Amino acid sequence: MLTLPSTVRVYVAAQPTDLRKSFDGLSIAVGSVLRLDPTSGHLFCFFNRRANQVRVLFWDRTGWCIVAKRLARGRFRLASILREDRACVQIDAAELALILEGIDLSTAKRHKRFRLDSAHAPL
Predict the structure, then answer these.
(1) How far apart are CA 27 and CA 34, in angstroms?
(2) Is 73 left (phi over 0), alpha (psi -120 to 50) or beta?
């Protein structure tokens, strides 16, 4: 399971991406297609057309990092989160972990949990 600070956001590109792109190509896509700052420290997820590969790009204060996964069988289930009217969709780290594990979010049910507002969090 991914454990990320609550300040880190996860953005998923709504359109398939040519995953032959690497550090430079994906960072340019973050700025020009997603219209976000690629050096923000947030995670930017790109899936290929067949939805069997993903690359997650992020900046870690000293350089670019890419985490990649290619499924041996099957596809990532993304239809429930993607919207055609947006360049990207923001999800949380738990949702990303579920997608990477092969769980279809359209059939998953999230139960209400207590969540401390980050503005009122203890120091």
Answers:
(1) 10
(2) beta
Please check whether residue 26 is in contact with residue 57, taking contact to mean a CB–CB distance below 8 angstroms. yes
Per DSSP, the three-state class of 58 is strand
Q: In this structure, how many other beta carbons lie within 10 angstroms of the beta carbon of residue 96? A: 20
Using only C-alpha atoms, the chain has a radius of gyration, in whole angstroms, of 15
Nearest Cα to Cα of residue 64 among 36, 82, 44, 90: 44
- The DSSP call for residue 106 is T
Over residues 41-81, the pLDDT tens digits come to: 999 999 999 999 999 999 998 999 999 999 999 999 887 77
pTM for this predicted structure: 0.81
Distance from the Cα of residue 100 to its chain's centroid: 10
DSSP letter for 30, please: H
